[in-house]
Amino acid sequence: MMCLKIGEQTLFPAVRKASIGTIISANGTSCRHQIKDGTHKDALHPITVLKQGLK
Q1: Of 51, 38, 44, 48, nearest in space to 22 by CA
Q2: What is d(CA 36, CA 12) in angstroms, rounded to the nearest whole number?
Q3: With helix as H, strand as E and coil as C, how does 19-44 read?
């Protein structure tokens, strides 16, 4: 899939290298799914990150 090939250029390697506890955020539904498919890590919507920060 072309999107996954593009993700492998920069984004996916950076996500894989992120330390445990790093919050990965993406506002698009398809973006979050592609990050999950390409790295097996969850990305959160920015509003979800803000909501968690208010708890």
Answers
A1: 44
A2: 10
A3: CCCCCCECCCHHHHHHHHHHHCCCCE
